[in-house]
Amino acid sequence: MRPTVNHPIDSAEFSRDPYPLLAALRARGPVQRVRTDNGRTTWVVTGWAEARAALADTRLSKDTARYFADRPGTRRLAPAVSRTMLATDPPHHGRLRKLAMRAFTPAAVARLEPRIRAIAEELADALAARGSADLVLEFAEPLPIAVISEMLGLPQADRAAVRRWSHDLFAAGAPDTVDRASHALSDYMTRLIAARREDLGDDVLSGLIAARDEADRLSEAELVSLAVLLVVAGHETTTHLIGNGMLALLRDGALRSRLRADPALLPAAVEEFLRHDAPITLATFRFATEPFDLGGARIGAGDVVLVSPGAANRDPARFVAPDDVRLDRHRRTEPTEPTEPTEPGDAPGPPHRPRGPRPPEGLRGSDGPGGHLSFGHGPHHCLGAPLARVEARIAFEVLLTRFPGIRPAVDSWDALEWRRTRLMHGLAGLPVHLGP
């Protein structure tokens, strides 16, 4: 049994810059037992090979309702938030995912691209009129929330409140705030679905309602939960991808000039920003359904396991100079994650249910577009990955084209404020000057 180590995954320091802390943990071994601030212990997976294996291992369950059933009083969240598709296992997960994924296929996202660009340009127009701005609050947040709101058919007047509730769901160390936000968002979506049922449109939410009412493929609870998940997951991580990527660009004038001169490099830049500063530091809750070995550690039945995409993406066993931003990492084409379900009963394709760890794929420095784990791996691979990639590419292109003189409006990078959450890594604000 490996010793339990005290590690500040709940600290403000971890929220601000988790990478040195995760690197120190990984130096002890790719899988370590950590004691959290509440006195509980969890396994943290920091190695790339071990993280990739864990994300696809069926012995690690995401069924939080099952886990907490024997632990009354530990969860207060609204069921629509605590029991989303992310907190289910196959085959139930595959049924829900199959219904939701129609809106996020590459072809569906391609049809959205003109509208995404129009929203980005409108936001840039507002910034240009002022000459300075907070890129997070005035661009990186409004762009993805506008896109997912339009997809779901959320009324314009409601979006600020939805954005605030979603933000509060990730407030570290504030369980009452998280609890209130979960119920507010669940209640709102319940009311919206009831109203939309009386006047169906061509939006994603109407399509899910039709799947519920005409084919009875969703229960009412599943419908509300799926809608909540789509609106939250549909913008939170993309906001951090844009914000973190723009921070990397503000730190590197040569890279800004290179991308401005050659926009064809933007897709590679998006992949590298995803790898270098992952929006997700620690993936959502998993627990072991049986004992097994991972990365030299013996995981016990019932043990909680947190996979760290942020740490895995900077594993020197996988990536050369992992702390550097390098676009040439993504030149070689590799198969990307499937865009169709890969669980039993979700044809096409064979079931994707590996057991146990897989060997690392590729050589050091040869990682391709699928090399990072920021969108996960296996059955829970991020449904909205195609949308996030397009939104980020357009965001960077619009900002770099419209504002060639963009520069930070802080005297020190240490002055920047980061979101206080262990799950995600993202800026709370990014002040910039936009003029020459």
3D architecture notes:
With 436 residues, the protein is of the alpha+beta class. It has one domain: Cytochrome p450, CATH 1.10.630. It is built from 18 helices and eleven strands. The protein has a six-stranded mixed β-sheet with strand order 1-2-3-9-6-4. It has a three-stranded antiparallel β-sheet with strand order 5-11-10. Strand 2 (31-35) and strand 3 (41-45) form a beta hairpin. The longest helix is centred in the first third of the chain and has 23 residues, at 106-128. The protein is globular. It starts with a strand and ends with a strand. Mean pLDDT is 87; it is low at 332-370.
Number of helical stretches of at least 4 residues = 18
Query: How are the strands of the biggest sheet laid out side by side?
Result: 1-2-3-9-6-4
Euclidean distance between termini CA atoms: 59 Å
- Estimated structural class: alpha+beta
CATH fold field value:
Cytochrome p450
Uncertain parts: 332-370
Question: Strand share of the residues?
Answer: 5-15%
Gyration radius from CA atoms, angstroms: 21 Å
Helix fraction bin: 40-55%
Can you name the CATH architecture?
Orthogonal Bundle
Total domains, how many? 1
Beta strand count: 11
- The CATH C-level name is Mainly Alpha
What is the average of the pLDDT values? 87
Largest sheet: 6 strands, mixed
CATH superfamily: Cytochrome P450
**Helix-strand sequence:** EHHEEHEHHHHEHHHHHHHHHEEEEHHEE
Query: How would you sum up the global shape?
Result: globular
